[in-house]
Please model this.
Amino acid sequence: MDRLLIDKLDGAALRLHEPQRQPRPQSPLPIAYTTVIKDGDLYRAYYRDYRKGYSGPWNDGNPGEITCYAESRDGCEWRFPDLGVCDVESPRGRNVIWDGADACSHNFCPFLDARPGTPRSERFKALGGTKGSGGLYAFASPDGVHWRKLRDKPVITSTDYAFDSQNVSFWSEAESRYVCYFRSWRTPHGRLRTVSRTTSEDFLRWAPPVPTNPNRPGEHLYTSQTHPYFRAPHIYIALPTRFMPNRGNSTDILFMAARAGDVEFARLFVEAFIRPGLDPARWGNRANYVALNVVPAGPAEMSIYHKDGCRYTLRIDGFISVRAGAAQGELLTKPLTFSGSRLFVNYSCSAAGSLRAEIRDSRGAPIPGFRLEDCPPIIGDKIRQRVRWKGDPDLSQLAGAPVRLRFVMTECDLYAFRFGDEEEASP
Model:
């Protein structure tokens, strides 16, 4: 996601991978400031819609806005259950969970609260509201369907922020606090739509916001969609919509990341992550948004939901890789410490490709038993492959001491590596 662990690349380079568009489902998920939550075996989705028969006005927080609910068992086809929670109908029936009061349906954005000790009555939390409503209100729910306000007044307020976007929040396991990324204006390049960050220990009292400064000159960034990556919650993924008002109001999707506690985002790649594509309708204003959260779609795949109704997929960990071509390439890490007794890699080789690993001490000297020549070449394509050395030496003897990892590859992508104690079992 960034260069924090990378000391040197020799004959290898970082590569941003393109999500693959899947066929449009028969019952697609509407994308209008949408959130998708993987809750056990159930996919829950929340999105903005309008009261059945509503005909205007269409300003932010207008009387027609409502918050609707959908769910799916396979993450592809969606159903819109008759909930009977609100005395309001959407175009898809009685799947309304909030009737738009206090303009909170404009951008109602829930999450599953993983804070230790959270009461069952607050298993889900959410923020919603606009500048016109005074800011962002806090909500809680025991089941993701029945919601109540935690306070009668907004918990995040300001006269300098717009809030007219999907303002995202979550419990950060790594920071031991709630984090919120919301729409603001201040950038080093002038008044551009951008992202600010604030934190809270109780979801009610929030620290003064700080700008994250992700914009390049001329870029407006909407809907940051920042969230902890489900495989590594200390890493936050962001998939903002980039808005180019001087290029026909065209939009696309970017990829950014931050580590827990970072004020600013890392942008290893400044180009688009998802382009508008061949469809002319994708080249208009507000044509390219994705739902909040990249979610698992099986043991080897994860899903991103796009406004066009289609699901995009990547392999697990497949945002960025270190790639080597036909000529040998190497990755050398900075000194790091680890816990665990096994090293695993997520990698993809060609038929002619391979990967080997070496462990060095902090000074850069290969450690006996873990030299490159002791590592049989790894071939194939796996999400989790254990790295072995001749004689199967005990890796835990190195745990806790600074070491460097050296990966040597040909025709190979290395997506991730990690240490652990679990047995090998992977697609």
